[in-house]
Design brief:
The complex is a heterodimer.
Chain A: H1 3-6, H2 8-31, H3 37-55, H4 58-64, H5 72-102, H6 110-169, H7 173-189, H8 191-211, E1 217-218, H9 219-237, E2 241-247, E3 255-256, H10 262-272, E4 280-289, E5 292-300, H11 308-325, E6 331-336, E7 340-348
Parallel strand pairs in A: 2-4
Antiparallel strand pairs in A: 1-3, 4-5, 5-7, 6-7
Helix pairs in contact in A: 2-3, 3-5, 4-6, 5-6, 7-8, 7-9, 8-9, 9-10, 10-11
Chain B: H1 2-9, E1 14-19, H2 23-34, E2 39-45, H3 48-58, E3 62-66, H4 74-80, E4 86-91, H5 95-104, E5 108-110, H6 115-128, H7 136-143, E6 152-157, E7 160-165, E8 171-175, E9 178-183, E10 186-190, H8 194-200, E11 206-210, E12 213-216, E13 220-225, E14 231-235, E15 240-243, H9 245-258
Parallel strand pairs in B: 1-2, 1-3, 3-4, 4-5
Antiparallel strand pairs in B: 6-7, 8-9, 8-12, 9-10, 11-12, 13-14, 14-15
Helix pairs in contact in B: 3-4, 4-7, 5-7
Classes of the chains: A alpha+beta, B alpha/beta.
Chain lengths: 372, 259
C-alpha cells in the first residue's frame, strides 16, 4: 500500500513540500517572459497540484525497480522514460487547460503564450519527477530498516519465550541419571523402596513437564514438587542431606510463578550439599506479611569448592522470571558467608482468583502418602 | 562354579577400590563385581581424600572412580595417585568428561551401570593393569568446558592433600620434573610440567614471565631492570622473579588490556 496515502501526516508533509515548488514554477514561467504573474499563477498552481498527485505514482515504479537488485541502467532508463511520458502528458493537459482559459476575455491569447512555455514545463516536470523518485527511494529504505528492526525485536522476544519454556521443562540430566542409578541399586537390595522411588521420580517429571504451560501455580503445588525432588535426593545422599522446613500456612494458597523454588532447592543440593563430604542441611522458610510473600532458602556449603559461576544459571533464571511477572515489585537477595549460602525472595502476595476452588491436582500433597 | 574358583585360586587376585560418594552407587559396583571372584574389593571410599589414602595403603590394581565427588573430583584423585593403576571412571552425565574419555581412550561407565558395559570395561581394564594411565592433567584439561579455567590446584604431600585456590597462588616455578606452587610464603611441589599448568590457568590473571616462572598478575607491584635485556618482577611480599624479554612483552600486553 502507498505509504503517503495510508498516513495523513505524511501526505500533508508531501503537499507542503510541493507548495514552494509550485511558487518556484510560477517564478520560472514569469521570468522567462511574455506572461503576466496572474496568468502564470492561474495556470501553474492547479497544474502543480495535479502533478503532485501524478508523482505519487513514482512510488510504484520505485518499488518495481529496487535499487539493490536492478541494474543502474535499468533504474535510470525506467525513471527517465516514466518522467518524460508523465511530463509530456502533463504539458498536454496544461495546453488543453490554457486553451479553455483563453476563451475567457481576460485570458485571451493565453493558449499561444502557453505554447512558448511548454518546453520549460516539460523539463521542470521531468526534474520534479526525478526528485520524487529520489525521495521515494529514501522512504523505501526507511521502511525496510524499520521492518528489519521490528523483526529483530520480534525474534528476540520469541527467543526469550522459547528459552523460558525450555528452562521450565528442563530436568537436570545429572539428577535424572543419578536417580535411575539409585533405583537400579535398590531393585536388588530393597525392591519396595525402588518402586517408591520410581513413583516419586515419575511424579516429579510429570509435574515439571506440566508446569511449562502455566504462568502461575499455587505455592502448595510448588512445595509438593520440591518435596518430591528432596525425597529423591534424600535416597541418593542418605544422611548427608538434612532438610528443615518452616512454611506459614497462609502462604500455601498464594500464586507464584512455577519452578520458583525448585531451582533454588536444586542449587542448594547440587552446589551445597553435594560438595560437602559429611553433608549439610537445607532450610526452607516462607512467610506472608503485609501483602508480601517472603521465601528463604538457606544451605550449608563449602565456599572454596563451589565455583561461583556454576551457581549463577538457576539463580539468574529465577530472578528474570520474578522480574517478568512482577516488574520492579519483587526482589531477590543472595548472600553467602564462609559456610552458609542464602537466597531470599520477596514478592507481592498474589491471591488465587477462586481460593475456594477444589485443587485439580490429584497427586498427593506430600510424598509421605506415597508409601503404602 | 567350583572349577572357576579352583582355577583362579592359585593366581594372584586383582585388588580393586570403589570410589563414589553415594552408597547406592557403590552397592551396584559391589554387586557387579560379585560375579568376579578373581577381583577382590580392598576398600570402598566415599570421597577423594579417602581414595588417595586407600590407594597409598592398599596399592590396588584397579580403581572404580566416580567423576563428581565433593571437594576432590575423580580427575583430582587421578592427579594425586600413581599412574600405573587401571582406572575405570564412572559418571552420570558430563558431556565434556565423556568426550575426554573417548579422546584419551580411558574406560568409563555411565550411570545407571549396565552389566554388559560393565563386563566390557572390566575386561579391557584388567588387560591394562600395570600400564600407565594417560597423564591426569591432559584428561582433566580435555574435560573442562571451553573457556573455563582452573579454580584450584590439588597437591599431595605423602597422604596429605592440599587444595590451593588459584586466587591464592602467588607464582609457579619450574623445578626439573616438578613445579613449585608458591602461596603465602609456602611452596608445594607437584609433578607436572609448567606448560600444562599454564594451559589451565586464566591468561587474564596469570602470566608466563619466564621459561621457568608463571606469576599471578595481581601480586606484581613493580618491574625493575636487571642486567642487559632482562628484568625483575617484584611481588607484594618482596619476592623477586626473573622476567625474560618475551615475558616482559606478555606482562605489558596484559597491562594494556586491563587499562
Amino acid at each position: 500500500m502507498h505509504p503517503l496515502l495510508t498516513r495523513r501526516s505524511y501526505l500533508g508533509a508531501y503537499l507542503a513540500v510541493w507548495l514552494p515548488l509550485a511558487c518556484l514554477l510560477v517564478f520560472l514561467i514569469k521570468v522567462s517572459g511574455g506572461i503576466g504573474i496572474l496568468e502564470a499563477t492561474v495556470v501553474v498552481v492547479p497544474m502543480a497540484v495535479l502533478f503532485a498527485a501524478a508523482c505519487l505514482s513514482a512510488w510504484y515504479t520505485c518499488r518495481a525497480t529496487p535499487l539493490r537488485s536492478s541494474g543502474i541502467t535499468r533504474v535510470f532508463a525506467t525513471h527517465l522514460v516514466a518522467a518524460f511520458i508523465l511530463s509530456f502528458l502533463w504539458a498536454q493537459i496544461g495546453r488543453v487547460y490554457a486553451h479553455a482559459l483563453s476563451t475567457a476575455p481576460s485570458f485571451q491569447g493565453l493558449d499561444v503564450r502557453y505554447e512558448a512555455h511548454s518546453a520549460i514545463l516539460i523539463v521542470s516536470g521531468v526534474l520534479l519527477y526525478l526528485v520524487n523518485v529520489g525521495f521515494f527511494y529514501v522512504l523505501i529504505a526507511l521502511e525496510a530498516s524499520r521492518a528489519a528492526e521490528a523483526r529483530v525485536l520480534e525474534t528476540s522476544v520469541l527467543a526469550r519465550d522459547a528459552e523460558l519454556k525450555a528452562l521450565k521443562a528442563q530436568v537436570n540430566p545429572h539428577f535424572l541419571f543419578n536417580s535411575l542409578n539409585s533405583i537400579s541399586a535398590l531393585t536388588s537390595s530393597d525392591p519396595a523402596k525402588a518402586r517408591e522411588m520410581c513413583i516419586l521420580l515419575a511424579e516429579f517429571l510429570r509435574m515439571t513437564l506440566g508446569l511449562g504451560e502455566k504462568s502461575a501455580i499455587p505455592f502448595s503445588e510448588e512445595l509438593s514438587l520440591v518435596h518430591r525432588f528432596l525425597a529423591i535426593e534424600k535416597v541418593r545422599f542418605g544422611s548427608r542431606l538434612n532438610m528443615t522446613e518452616d512454611i506459614a500456612e497462609d502462604c500455601k494458597i498464594l500464586l507464584v510463578p512455577p519452578l520458583l523454588l525448585q531451582p533454588l532447592i536444586e542449587n542448594a543440593v547440587t552446589h551445597g550439599i553435594a560438595n560437602l563430604p559429611d553433608g549439610g542441611s537445607v532450610r526452607l522458610a516462607a512467610r506472608c506479611q503485609a501483602g508480601r510473600l517472603s521465601v528463604l532458602v538457606e544451605n550449608t556449603f563449602d565456599a572454596e569448592s563451589t565455583p561461583s559461576h556454576r551457581n549463577g544459571m538457576g539463580l539468574q533464571n529465577v530472578r528474570q522470571r520474578l522480574e517478568a511477572r512482577y516488574p520492579k515489585q519483587a526482589n531477590m537477595r543472595v548472600t553467602a558467608d564462609a559456610a552458609r549460602f542464602q537466597v531470599s525472595l520477596s514478592l507481592p502476595a498474589e491471591p488465587q482468583e477462586e481460593p475456594w476452588a477444589e485443587p485439580k491436582e490429584n497427586l498427593p500433597a506430600t510424598p509421605k502418602e506415597v508409601q503404602r | 562354579m567350583n572349577a572357576v574358583t579352583e582355577k583362579n585360586f592359585g593366581e594372584k587376585k586383582l585388588g580393586a577400590l570403589i570410589v563414589d560418594d553415594e552408597e547406592l552407587a557403590r552397592q551396584i559396583l559391589r554387586e557387579l563385581l560379585h560375579a568376579h571372584p578373581e577381583i577382590q574389593i580392598l576398600a570402598e571410599c566415599a570421597n577423594g581424600f579417602e581414595a588417595v589414602k586407600a590407594v597409598a595403603e592398599h596399592k590396588p590394581d584397579l580403581l572404580f572412580l566416580d567423576v563428581q565427588m565433593p571437594k576432590l573430583s575423580g580427575f583430582d584423585v587421578l592427579e594425586l595417585i600413581e599412574r600405573d593403576i587401571a582406572v575405570i571412571f564412572v559418571t552420570a552425565y558430563d558431556q565434556y568428561a565423556m568426550k575426554a574419555f573417548e579422546v584419551q581412550a580411558v574406560d568409563y561407565l555411565l550411570k545407571p551401570i549396565g552389566r554388559e558395559r560393565f563386563e566390557a570395561a572390566l575386561e579391557r581394564a584388567t588387560k591394562r593393569v600395570g600400564e600407565k594411565m594417560p597423564p591426569a592433567h591432559d584428561l582433566a584439561a580435555a574435560s573442562r568446558p571451553p573457556q573455563q579455567y582452573l579454580e584450584r590446584l590439588v597437591v599431595r604431600d605423602g597422604t596429605r592433600v592440599t587444595l590451593i585456590p588459584t586466587a591464592k597462588l602467588d607464582y609457579v616455578e619450574a623445578q626439573d620434573d616438578y613445579v613449585a606452587l608458591a602461596t603465602h610464603g609456602a611452596k608445594h611441589l607437584k609433578q607436572q610440567t609448567i606448560a600444562s599448568i599454564e594451559a589451565g590457568l586464566d591468561p587474564a590473571r596469570f602470566v608466563r614471565i619466564h621459561r621457568s616462572y608463571i606469576v599471578n598478575f595481581e601480586r606484581v607491584v613493580r618491574i625493575e631492570p636487571y642486567g642487559k635485556d632482562s628484568r625483575l618482577a617484584i611481588l607484594a611480599d618482596g619476592t623477586r622473579l626473573p622476567v625474560s624479554r618475551t615475558g616482559y612483552a606478555r606482562l605489558k600486553s596484559l597491562l594494556d588490556d586491563r587499562t
